[in-house]
């Protein structure tokens, strides 16, 4: 192929007369595109779609709120790189995934879909290109991760289904689920293959299992995560705030640090596996009382916990994800809550 110099080509989308259900109506004013940039994109395996001819090339996300599009930079560029990632629900976990993904794939684009525009400015500063939930997508992505919680929607499985439609099937689609569906409430042992709560018994587990079903049927993978935590978030932070909590102290719970959950998610995304369920935990189950004893022992928190006063609520489970670790080749940075706090159990 001859080298293309920096000449320009003027594109008039109306004249193409071509559109499909993935592309917007090609009715925008003409755009000037550098042939050199198109050649470079081809060399770097970046896909040029028709939608790229219908939107400013410098803008990377999309929205349906009229004039606000220009403020937020939310018109789709139509240029999708082979390592680009869409994060549905770029909250604490999603943002850590974005950071770690970018470290693994320098130069990639990371997109974040949110329910509101409240945090779009923050996302832009972090290099995440924001869009609004409910916006008709003009492109699909090779990597998609769903990190949004079920608490802010009336149709969680439906939202997951929409996310699956944003995946082009090339890389990976990962859903961050919960370990809650495992049918164990006697502080017994559980692993990736343990039975789950039957559909119909609990609305909380029903919504998770139905969402997982959508993911698996689309070829995606689910990660059932234990209780997420960092210094100022997690069960321990909630209990410190409350002081006295009316639940039993001997209930066993399982934990995973946000950083470790993100690194596990990235490791699974990179594997490009299909229709699998994995488990994310630190393999060091603790009773509620043990958690708060470690908090007190650490001396790192100004607030003081008083007591658990419950006696009859359900017990928990002891999770072990050795199978996930072996297959994915992953180990946590924080192997236990005690290690994170810098104290011995």
From TrEMBL:
Keyword Methyltransferase in annotation: no
GO cellular component term of the entry, any: chloroplast
Entry's family note: Belongs to the NAD(P)-dependent epimerase/dehydratase family.
Alphabetical keyword list: Isomerase, NAD
Keyword Flavoprotein: no
Protein name as catalogued: NAD-dependent epimerase/dehydratase domain-containing protein
Molecular functions per Gene Ontology: racemase and epimerase activity
Superkingdom of the source species: Eukaryota
């Amino acid at each position: 192929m001859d080298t293309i110099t920096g000449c320009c080509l003027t594109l008039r989308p109306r004249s193409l007369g071509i559109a499909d259900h993935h592309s917007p109506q090609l009715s925008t004013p003409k755009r000037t595109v550098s042939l050199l940039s198109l050649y470079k994109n081809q060399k770097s395996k970046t896909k040029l779609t028709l939608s790229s001819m219908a939107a400013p090339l410098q803008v990377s996300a999309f929205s349906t709120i009229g004039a606000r599009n220009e403020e937020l930079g939310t018109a789709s560029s139509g240029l999708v790189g082979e390592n680009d990632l869409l994060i549905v629900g770029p909250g604490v976990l999603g943002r850590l995934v974005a950071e770690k993904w970018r470290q693994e794939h320098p130069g990639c684009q990371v997109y974040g879909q949110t329910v509101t525009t409240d945090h779009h400015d923050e996302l832009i500063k972090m290099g995440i290109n924001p869009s609004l939930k409910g916006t008709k997508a003009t492109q699909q992505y090779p990597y998609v991760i769903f990190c949004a919680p079920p608490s802010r929607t009336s149709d969680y499985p439906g939202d997951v289904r929409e996310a699956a439609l944003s995946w082009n099937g090339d890389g990976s689609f990962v859903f961050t689920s919960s370990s809650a569906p495992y049918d164990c409430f006697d502080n017994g042992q559980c692993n990736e293959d343990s039975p789950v709560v039957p559909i119909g018994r609990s609305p909380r587990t029903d919504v998770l299992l139905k969402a997982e079903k959508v993911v698996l049927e689309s070829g995606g993978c689910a990660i059932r995560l234990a209780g997420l935590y960092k210094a100022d978030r997690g069960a321990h932070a909630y209990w410190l705030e409350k002081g006295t909590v009316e639940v039993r102290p001997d209930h066993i719970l399982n934990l995973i640090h946000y950083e470790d959950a993100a690194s596990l998610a990235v490791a699974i995304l990179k594997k490009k596996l299909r229709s699998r369920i994995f488990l994310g935990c630190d393999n060091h189950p603790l009773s509620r009382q043990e958690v708060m004893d470690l908090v007190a022992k650490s001396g790192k928190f100004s607030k003081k916990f008083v007591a658990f006063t419950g006696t009859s609520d359900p017990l928990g489970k002891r999770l072990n994800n050795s199978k996930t670790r072996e297959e994915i080749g992953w180990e946590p940075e924080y192997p236990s809550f005690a290690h994170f706090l810098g104290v011995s159990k």
